Amino acid sequence: MANNPIPTGPAMAVPVPTRYRVDFRRLVVLLLPGLLRRPRQTALLQWLTTPVRSLYARFVAYEAQVRRELSYNSQVLLFEAALNDRFDPAVRRIYLTNSDVELSPVYVNFVAEQQPNPAAYFRSEGQAPVYLFRWVEFSQQADFVVHAPAVLRTPQTISQLNAAIRRLKLANKQYLLVFF
Questions:
Q1: Predicted TM-score of the model (pTM)
Q2: Are 94 and 41 found together in one domain?
Q3: Average pLDDT in the chain
Q4: What are the contacts of 154-161 at 24+ separation with CB within 8 A?
């Protein structure tokens, strides 16, 4: 019987923090009184601790996953890593781009404000047109664009992707999800 305080297996790729290390096989032997430490008795008690050991392994895997998720923030590289780790781990095709298109509002002023109004021209004059934006267009501007592969375009994945983006982004930032 090996004295291994760290559970092994595919879920245990990350080392267990010291505060969570428990060797249940050794613990059973240490808690058993000296008179009852017979091979059959210890084997029975170790078999009875199997459900606790499996819960322990699941807990350690969950703890590692939560630590990894808590290390993500709204920095672009970590943001992309978080989305790729969850939704596209094999190919890692999700990426972010900053939106550099910003609408500048055109204000039409009252005479009492004593401010210059924008000049309006006819098409025949050959001047650049002045476009008066609606408020909806300003409120829906995206600060960044999330590009995701079209394979992820299912209703369930879109809602999960939007939830993950909302959880990681800064509160005052708007985003646009684009599938390619």
A1: 0.59
A2: no
A3: 82
A4: 157/87, 160/87, 161/83, 161/87
